[in-house]
Amino acid sequence: MPINYDSEKKIFKLDSAASSYVFEIFDEGYLVHLYYGAYIPDNNVGMFRDKGMFVSESPCNFKIGEGSFSPDVTPLEFSGEGSGDFRNSCIAVRNADGNNVTDMRYVSHKIYPGKPSLKGMPALFVTDPSQADTLEVTVRDSVTGIEAVLYYTVFNDCGAMARGVKVINPTDKTVYLERIMSCCVDYDTHDYDLITLYGKWSKERSVERSPLAHLTQGISSKRGSSSHHHNPFAALVDREANEDYGSAYGFNLVYSGNFVFDAEVEPFGGVRTVMGINPEGFEWTLEPGGEFVAPEAVTVYSNEGIGGMSRVFHKLYSKHLIRSKWAHVKRPLLINNWEATGMDFTGDQLVTFAERAKELGIDMLVMDDGWFGNRDSDKTALGDWFVNENKLGGPLGDFVKRINDLGIKFGIWFEPEMVSRDSDLYRAHPDWCIHVPGREKSIARHQYVLDFSREDVRDYIYGLMRGIIAENNIAYVKWDCNRYLSEVGSAALPKERQKETFHRYVLGVYDVLGRLTSDFPDLLLEGCASGGGRYDPGMLYYEPQIWCSDNTDPIERLSIQFGTSLCYPASTMGAHVSDSRRAGYETKGNIALWGTFGYELDPNTFTPEEVEIVKNQVNEYHKYYALIHEGELYRLITPDKNHFRAAWMFVSEDKNSALVTSVVMRKQEENNFYLKLKGLDPEKYYVEDESGEVYSGALLMNAGLCLNKYGRMDGDSFKLYFRTL
Ligand code: DGJ
């Protein structure tokens, strides 16, 4: 059994495919953390540990060894607030007496096969109970009576755990949840580097690595969405860990709103990591009988370095996160008109896009922003989801039919959560947006945010979307979101619940996404938020792909895609060939292939030579689709300032085929260029497709290939495809 409870020692041991996680029920019901790391067969981890842990000035529990135990210096599973542990707490509940002292101790537990889902929220799932096992531990504050259930799910096919918390108020008094972390892991050393993904618009998910120091180092968002600025991902890795070697612990929150991750190094040398909803701006009223379900956190452990950690995340998300049927069904190859036309297009013009797309072998045309209301600039019409028939030359149904008659599928853009200041919707319902009465609302991109915490607002917007999708033959929706939340309040909530607005807003977004995906299970959804501003597992649960960035310059894309790949699989990365100037179409295609692949340009501008390049790329899209979408990623050369070229490869799960890509970012004289491959079977022999040369996996990985004949100028690139004999 992957989860074992040793009732004599009172120790829980949770084993996933490659990791073990161990904690015990200590005296007085403290849940003491013992171990997280590479798989170990036994549970004697705490054998030589002092029974009590004590520091004279730290508050003690006198019931344990006459005051020899202090929670302040003990690794704990779910530490409370103001009860002797001064580190970041996991929970703070303001009680009916007005203080927020919270002290949660063990009450009971149960272990069962499978994994529970979270009502109304995204979460990892299993398709068969045999794929995972779950431990539920109930803890209680003996003074206030507030309870929490801690969920731990281990997956049998991935070295990963899902963690969650439900807080329950079984008392007859109203209390206020001020802080709730979804997961906490205490380590006994801080000999780690912290890796995070920071960014901004057009430069999302850059990798930052820094050693842990005697500080609290962390990332967060209070922008209302997970944001461009910090992805809700963090990793603790051995100081010497690289792509292939060392321990790597990855954390990711299945949530699309305000979040926090903190790594707090304590004076005694350990580090506490916590991840959950950002407590800033958050509070939740728990009436008698009320419950609060925190978003799920995912932890991954790999002793095969950062690359190993990424591959676990990729497999986990492909199998256990992305709900859409498109997770494993081949997706149509699309062309989007945004970069070519902006909002200045006509139906006839888009039909010419579709005609040329057909000749090139492209499957779907996506009509981006500008098809509704009087949306001729970003100043107007968001919320007025009525087709602009003048622009399209007639009803949407007729236009879609013209596209479909060419043998091309049709996709459309929405920005459901927003309303333009200049829109009929805003004029009719100014109170439908997020706002604080009497305070001026900040504007961004000339728009406000609709109050999706309100069911009436959601019903109205979804009613319009649903009508358009149901009445027309729409195969794909791009769900965009182009601003953050400010002056946050809801006209529909009483004053004591105003700080619930942020979270209720996120739940509202999930509600509409849930309705959309269950009403239209065949619809392909692509997420987007000013490029990749909401690239998180919460969104991936509903949307199998997310537009990575508005930056489609191929060289810039390298670092964005490398960073994104730390946690998220290639099948999720919206990546298109565009008209951007740097590098030719071949290189642009080679880089976009490391993603969903598609085009973002006017296909009528291609020269005859470019037409041939594109036709070839379309063939390659089909040829390599399964390898890229289902295969394992190995990052070979990182596109950082120490390198002048980048390289990566995909290897099929059976190790029978591999695709290697390399791109020159900056020209530089080099001697012989050898590229050592990874992830192959050393015993197998592989033929390289283009040259017909045969190499052993051992040669390719140890000696490497001398690749001098491939270009060395800025923007040059090559691909090599290998398959076993
Ligand atoms: C931002 C997106 O990232 C773009 O791709 C495009 O859809 C625009 N919004 C449309 O306004």
How would you describe this protein?
- With 725 residues, this protein is α+β, with helices and mostly antiparallel strands.
- The protein is built from 13 helices and 39 strands.
- Strands 6, 7, 8, 9, 11, 12, 14, 15, 19 and 20 form a 10-stranded antiparallel beta sheet that branches. It has a 9-stranded parallel beta sheet with strand order 29-28-27-26-23-22-21-31-30.
- A hairpin with a 5-residue loop joins strand 3 (19-25) and strand 4 (31-38).
- Helix 11 packs parallel to helix 12.
- The relative contact order is 0.09.
- It binds (2R,3S,4R,5S)-2-(hydroxymethyl)piperidine-3,4,5-triol (DGJ).
- (2R,3S,4R,5S)-2-(hydroxymethyl)piperidine-3,4,5-triol binds at residues 338, 368-369, 413, 480, 482, 528, 530-531, 547, 550.
Radius of gyration: 27 Å
**Fraction of residues in helices?**
10-25%
Quaternary class: single chain
Number of strands: 39
Contiguous helical run count: 13
The overall pLDDT, averaged over residues, is 97
Calculate the terminal CA-CA distance, rounded to whole Å. 40 Å
Ligands bound, unique: (2R,3S,4R,5S)-2-(hydroxymethyl)piperidine-3,4,5-triol
Low-confidence stretches: none
Shape descriptor: globular
Counting helices, strands and paired strands, the structural category is alpha+beta
What can be said about the biggest beta sheet? 10 strands, antiparallel
Task: Assess the beta-strand content as a share of residues.
Answer: 25-35%
Defining traits:
nine-stranded parallel beta sheet, 13 helices, 39 strands, alpha+beta, 725 residues, ten-stranded antiparallel beta sheet
